[in-house]
Design a protein that fits this description.
By secondary structure, the chain is α+β, with helices and mostly antiparallel strands. The chain has helices spanning about 65-75, 100-115, 120-130, 175-180, 190-200, 205-210, 215-220, 225-235, 255-265, and strands at about 1-20, 25-45, 50, 80-85, 140-145, 150-155, 160-165, 240, 250-255, 270-275.
């Protein structure tokens, strides 16, 4: 049996640069992992099956883990089945990439388990069939993402803040968000990667220069997300932003005491996670 962790990500900024001819949107963002993860166990079996701790998630071919197994089987002519147990800790519909991380972790585990000789390029192509941000989770670290989110440039980013991540129990469909958001073709003068690298130690400049283009849409539609942002700032967060298409919101805190106080002040019905400074997934 293989046991593994599939970590969530947050987006540091997200610019929607326009709509492409293939129907996808051109974006610019930074993916960075935080300290919340799903737990996956995989065993060999005669057929493909999935058990999940969250009864709201499908466990058939609609699930990204099942789709990942089938795509890898087909690509590599594998007949062996697997039994997957998935313990969900990453909220669904939060903008944290939980399903994508699960799918990528499943692909990587099975490549090792089945002893498959496959190039990263081929594995990346399989991952991209599952979702635009699945390729990011095939490698460790922080990545500057462009294209539809699949053109990745990994780089070192040390975040010196306590990160408080709050999910206000609102499921937001990424497809819905892209359908609703207004886009204009644009080309930013300064890439997000450069802004973050130059200003990570000055949260005032992060606030001033790092947008999430989904935020205005979601804040208009969901008062709870507005309240979470305000509560984090009221609790002395220095930079607060929604992750991806939401609804999860994170805040950067200089002091551990402020971070823990902010977490404790949140609505008890919300899911709250704390990531320490300089975090690297185990």
């Amino acid at each position: 049996m293989i046991s593994l962790k599939a970590y969530a990500k947050i987006n540091l900024g997200l610019r929607i640069l326009g709509k492409r001819k293939d129907g996808y949107h051109e974006i610019e963002t930074i993916f960075h992992r935080v300290n919340v993860f799903d737990e996956i166990e995989i065993e060999l079996a005669s057929v493909i099956s999935l058990a999940c701790s969250d009864p709201a998630l499908p466990i058939d071919k609609r699930n990204l883990c099942i789709r990942a197994v089938r795509l890898l089987q087909r690509e590599c002519n594998i007949k062996q089945g697997v039994q997957i147990s998935l313990k969900k800790n990453i909220p669904v519909g939060a903008g944290l990439g939980g399903g994508s991380s699960d799918a990528a972790a499943t692909l990587l585990a099975l490549v090792k388990w089945w002893n498959i000789n496959i190039s990263h390029e081929r594995l990346n192509a399989i991952a991209l069939q599952l979702g635009s941000d699945v390729p990011y989770f095939l490698k460790e670290g922080t990545a500057y993402a462009t294209g539809r989110g699949e053109v990745l440039e990994y780089f070192d980013l040390d975040i010196p803040y306590w990160i408080v991540l709050v999910y206000p129990n609102i499921h937001i469909s990424t497809a819905w968000a892209y359908q609703q958001v207004l886009t204009e073709n644009q080309k930013p003068a300064i890439p997000l990667k450069q802004i973050v690298q130059e200003n990570i130690s000055d949260p005032r400049l992060l606030v001033a220069h790092i947008p999430n283009d989904f935020e205005p849409l979601v804040l208009r539609s969901h008062g709870a997300v507005v309240r979470v942002k305000k509560n984090l700032y009221d609790s002395r967060a220095e930079f607060v932003q929604m992750s991806g298409s939401g609804s999860a919101v994170y805040g950067f805190f200089a002091k551990e005491s402020d971070a823990r106080e902010a977490a404790g002040n949140m609505d008890k019905a919300y899911s709250v996670f704390i990531t320490p400074p300089h975090f690297i997934p185990a």
